Amino acid sequence: MKRIFIALCILMSTQLNMNAESKKVTLEVDGLERSYLVYTPSGFDKSHGHSVLMILHGLNGTSEGYAELCSAQMLSDVNDALVVFPQALEEQSSEIKGSVALMKQMNLLPAEMDIKYPWGAGARISAETMTEMAGALASLLPSMMPTVMQQGYGELNETVDDVKFINQIYADMQNNYNANDSFFVTGASMGGAMAYKYAYDKSCKAMKVCILNGFVGAGVDTVGKAINIPALIFHSKADAVVKYEGGMFNGPILSTVKTVASQNGCGDPVEKAVADVKDDGNTVVEMDFSCSAGKEIVYFESDNAAHTDFLNAQTNDVDFFVEMEKFFYGKSVTGNDDNLADLQLSFYPNPVEDALYTTEDGLCSVKDVTGRSLFAGKVINGTVDLSSLPAGVYFFFLENEKGVKTARIVKK
Fold first, then answer.
1. Which of 81, 94, 194, 328 could bond to 184 as cystine, CB 3.0-4.6 Å?
2. CA angle, 266 as apex, 265 and 271 as ends, to 5°?
3. CA dist., res. 239 & res. 300, Å (int)
4. Three-state DSSP class for residue 138
5. Which domains does the chain carry?
6. Structure pTM?
């Protein structure tokens, strides 16, 4: 059983194959060659409309890497959705690229820091901040980055219109894949910043947005504006990359969330502690802001999660993918949560060590995050032996006369 999870200047590099489960597409935006990956449901049927789930990678990320991380084909199959991974461009400013490289050589920036593939998300640093960072070498900045110092700030991929890029991809989905109005955008880290920028833009076509450890860049015009669509937001007080109290590119996170909610006309949040069933000393609070229908803001805040922990189903008692699917599609079909009762399937334990117990019998299979089949067998008397699987995150499929049900499991 599957679930529901006029192009401008589009130049296609290849003929689209409607039977393909995944496809890399190139197109032209403002004279620049851009690309994205699109995953279609297995046995894709263009005769009916499909939702679009767009996932924006973080700084230095790639569309291919995030497709694997997010189990793209599974998301597509389970939600009967077109799952899209756009690719950001390399930094277009030679001034900024050269200055970052030089500052790394001078040990003014961490050697591991890079600015490869940033979104044009309004990620801006003031000249004053850069001067402070340069310390005794500040006198070199005017010659290293004359344009940046003259305009008073440096902004990553400032000249790249990624809002237009996103809209052209969605137009492509409508024209070539019969996409419907259910268009959802999610992004992580700088991808989250890009999702914020897109949601604030008057040309935004998304119905809902999900922000994972993102921020509103200083280069984003938010004056007198609101995102005007529901937003699901995740962040951690212990995030060392996009710092909770404010950092190189961002202001204080909780203040940002409250501002977004206020702009949407929401009231004070109702806080609810998420049960610490993992007993890992890491707690999560859910804040539901009082908003009118169609403008809901929901915020999950961890006290001790690292920057990438929300993408790990074993961390924080909160599965990002489960919550995202519930928010976008109304119920989750890839996690062990309360809504599985609606699908008449429950299972335990999760994480599983050896035996997995379910409420139904039938044929079953297990696939890894790349879609590779690792196990096939039967559930007999509500039990299946998974002891042969190595530790990891998998997708469990159960098929019987009632249909096919899917769940995300963690193997110890």
1. 328
2. 170
3. 13
4. helix
5. 22-89+160-329 (3.40.50.1820), 94-155 (no CATH), 338-411 (2.60.40)
6. 0.78
